[in-house]
Amino acid sequence: MGAKVWLLIGIITLLQGCTYYFSNSWKKSFSAGGDRPYLTMGSRPAPLSDSLNTLLGAELLQHWATQTELYSDWREHGKIGVPRVVLANLMLGQNIDSTNKYLLSLVPWGTLGSTWAFNKNGDYDFTQIIFADILMRFRDQPKVLYTTTAEHLSSVLIPDQGLKTATRTPRTLRLMSDTENHILMREISRYLNLEYRRSQGLADTTITSLEIWLQHHLEEMLHTGFYEFNGQPYIGYTITALEVLYNHAQNPHIKLLAQQLLDKVHLDYALGSIGMRRYPPFRRRLNYAGNTEFAQDPHTAIMQVLLLKYERKPLQMEQLLHARHQSLIAWVNDYQLPDTLYRLITQPHPPYLALIGHGKKASPEVYSSGPGFLISAGGVQRGKQSQIVPRPIVLFVNDNAPTLEGTIYLKSQGAIKDWNQTGVYDKFAVSNGGAAVPEAMKPIADGNGWRILSPTHGLLVAIYSKTDLGILAIYDDWTQNPELLLTQIQDLNPDPELLYQEVRLPNRELIRYNLNSKKDTWVIRPSEESGLSRDFDKWPGLRLIKR
Fold first, then answer.
1. Is the preceding omega at residue 371 within 30 degrees of 0, hence cis?
2. For residue 9, how many other CB atoms are within 10 A of its CB?
3. CB–CB of 476/462 below 8 Å?
4. pLDDT tier at 137 (50, 70, 90 boundaries)?
5. CB–CB of 43/310 below 8 Å?
6. How far is CA 226 from CA 15, 113, 152, 259, in A?
7. Interatomic CA distance for residues 367 and 546, integer angstroms
């Protein structure tokens, strides 16, 4: 047996327990949970006109348009850079003739689908989705995108042709599904190419099996949420594909589904962030586990762009430190944030507890928030093959701390694979590791292992920290002196051993927890009256509890 065959067998053996790539059990795990509740999104601003888009986004468009030196190495820069240089030049009306001639000289630099040992030149999907955007954007502007160039894009540079979908990872004997973002990029490109050919009278307008499949796939994603939740860097490419689809879909129901999916993913961002900072668990990739910066993920860069579009403010390059390639697509396409999400991101959070389920053998997200603070649970890894990266439990306050080291956070014992950092409840968090507090943040009262801190005006944080126990409680409405809060906490919890399973806090219900909870179980033990389940594999996509 050849080495490649053994490699394939090894990969399949490693991932055979995966609920997404080799089975439908992850998708089916949502049936009992019901559809994800939806907030009323309200109205949203009209899309920017082409002239206003190019005026306000001139710096970003010029940033890409001037990088024509990338054309000299199509193989090296064809995945990300070249398609965006082409798009920016055409949008600005620059170098029209040379850009068309360049496109006519190209053939695909690689193959479609995920790159791996048997498909070493894969990832052309990343190029194809931007070419599909260009094709549809300028289909009625032959002085910008020449007719012969458009046909070359459609027939040569967008290889996904016809109605048959391609959802399997190439060269895996059709045993393994491709990743979520690759499936979206390929099938959206295929669909938009069909729409282009219809617009040119080259295909009939009968509803096809491809449209039926795409509609079903998007509806399923709306029901289950994203498998690659918060993926680093993949969530950015998923959003890019959906933005392109929203912008150009001719089928109104498909367009609406794209909008709803974008609203959904941005709602999760809004609930789990404060001041454009977040630190959620994520699926893919494990090598991002050591990143402690709060604003480096691509979703934050996209949200910065969407806020500026909503406000109709000029986009300046110093505002975009990361993911400028994904920022470009967010800027030039029509999707706008709805009013509800804009307010949730830019205004003080109302008090809430957000429980976000991601299905079978996944990690939940748990957030407790109120004006001036957000507690972000770190999640749990469900075996290395789950590709989930858990993180510490973090307390965010309105201090603009850019990294983990500048915040109060709760650690966990052991390696990442052993963590269960789901112990977040209403204005409360607990973990089986101690609390880390910035050195400059001194207690204003302390005793018997407890400390009272005031990281920002009007906010008190009670901390209890041992090597194998960390407790954090928020008081944003305490009007008496901090020493009294400390005294009452001490009086309510005279036995330190009981703190390993429960804590009593002033003006609060008794909070119970299990620091050694299994990896499919919420660390918090809520009361029966709450109606909350500890089995987070069965949580719905979102349960939002207003406090």
1. no
2. 11
3. no
4. very high
5. no
6. 19, 19, 34, 15
7. 12
Question: 181 with 124: CB under 8 angstroms?
Answer: no
Q: Identify whether the C-beta of residue 16 lies closer than 8 Å to the C-beta of residue 22.
A: yes
Q: How far is CA 19 from the centre of its chain?
A: 20
Q: What is the DSSP string of 296-313?
A: -SHHHHHHHHHHHHHHT-
Q: Are 371 and 348 in contact (CB under 8 A)?
A: yes
**Residue count (the chain):** 547
For the chain, what is the largest distance between any 2 Cα atoms, rounded to a whole number of angstroms?
A: 81
Instruction: Please name which of 276, 340, 260 lies closest in space to residue 41, comparing C-alpha atoms.
Output: 340
DSSP state for residue 172 in the 8-state scheme: S
DSSP class of 487: H
233-255: b (≥16 Cβ within 10 Å) or e: bbbbbbbbbbbbbbbbbbeeebb
Tell me, what amino acid is at 24? N
Cα-trace Rg, the chain? 25
User: Which residues make Cβ contacts (< 8 Å) with residue 202, sequence separation at least 6?
Assistant: none
Helix residue ranges, H only, 200-251: 209-224, 234-248
Token duo for residue 49: 């006109």
Separation of alpha carbons 531 and 352, rounded Å = 16
Tokens of 88: 């920016």
- Say what the pTM is: 0.94
Whole-angstrom distance, CA of residue 436 vs CA of residue 293:
16
Residue 538: CB atoms within 10 Å: 15
**What are the residues facing 447 on neighbouring strands?**
450
The span from the CA of 364 to the CA of 99, in Å, is: 46
30 or 113, which is more confident: 113
Q: Are 321 and 234 in contact (CB under 8 A)?
A: no
Contact 443, 452 (CB under 8 A): yes
Tokens coding 298: 């691509």
> Alpha helices, DSSP H only, in 39-80?
50-56, 58-65, 74-77
Q: How far apart are CA 310 and CA 243, in angstroms?
A: 15
Q: The dihedral of CA 36, 39, 40, 41: what is its sign?
A: negative
Asked which of 2-6, 187-191, 237-241 is least confident by mean pLDDT, the reply is: 2-6
* 424: alpha, beta or left? (left if phi > 0; alpha if psi -120 to 50): beta
Compute the distance between CA of residue 533 and CA of residue 200 in angstroms, rounded to an integer: 54
Q: pLDDT > 90: what percent of the chain?
A: 85
- pLDDT tens digits, one per residue of 476-510: 999 999 999 999 999 999 999 999 999 999 999 99
Residues 6+ apart with CB under 8 A from 165: 186, 187, 190, 210, 213
SS3 134: helix
Are the beta carbons of 126 and 79 closer than 8 angstroms?
A: yes
